[in-house]
């Protein structure tokens, strides 16, 4: 792999084996970081509080860290909660961004009764993704500013 001569199939097998070998370590790191963010991150606490006001509850039991094969960073499902792809998220700041993004989807589902299923209108799905991306990026500007001024 280091020489660049490994076939595409060989690379896929290598990364699949690595994901299997490191799954427990990746998931444990992800869970520790998730727990920290649920307790200390201003944006995650803000989103969690607003989700609770709408009758939802996102916590350790329904924010799960998993090894993913799809290349995505996370996902929200209104039946199961939030999935965080531990093998693709390697920093707490990245996990915070992904978790905030998925929490926006959870909030929207509770507040506006949105559904992001495959049979939805692609324009609605695209708008939901843009909204979640924009709002989850607030973390780096607004919430850090609030901490400094309080």
UniProtKB/TrEMBL annotation:
The keyword Transferase does not apply. The keyword Metal-binding applies. Its EC number is 3.4.24.-. Keywords: Hydrolase, Membrane, Metal-binding, Metalloprotease, Mitochondrion, Mitochondrion inner membrane, Protease. It is found in: Mitochondrion inner membrane. InterPro entries: Peptidase_M76_ATP23. GO terms for biological process: proteolysis. It is a peripheral membrane protein. Its main location: mitochondrion. One of its GO terms (molecular function) is peptidase activity. Has a dual role in the assembly of mitochondrial ATPase. Acts as a protease that removes N-terminal residues of mitochondrial ATPase CF(0) subunit 6 at the intermembrane space side. Also involved in the correct assembly of the membrane-embedded ATPase CF(0) particle, probably mediating association of subunit 6 with the subunit 9 ring. Belongs to the peptidase M76 family. This is Mitochondrial inner membrane protease ATP23.
């Amino acid at each position: 792999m280091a020489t660049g001569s490994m076939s595409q199939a060989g690379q896929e097998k290598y990364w699949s084996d690595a994901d299997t070998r490191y799954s427990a370590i990746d998931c444990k790191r992800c869970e520790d970081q998730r727990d920290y963010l649920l307790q200390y991150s201003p944006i995650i606490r803000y989103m969690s509080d607003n989700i609770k006001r709408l009758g939802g509850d996102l916590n350790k039991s329904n924010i799960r860290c998993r090894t993913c094969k799809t290349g995505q960073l996370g996902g929200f499902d209104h039946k199961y909660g939030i999935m965080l792809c531990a093998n693709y998220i390697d920093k707490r700041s990245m996990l915070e961004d992904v978790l905030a993004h998925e929490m926006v989807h959870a909030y929207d589902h509770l507040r506006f009764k949105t559904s992001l299923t495959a049979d939805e209108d692609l324009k609605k799905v695209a708008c939901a993704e843009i909204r979640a991306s924009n709002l989850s990026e607030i973390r780096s500007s607004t919430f850090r500013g609030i901490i400094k001024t309080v």
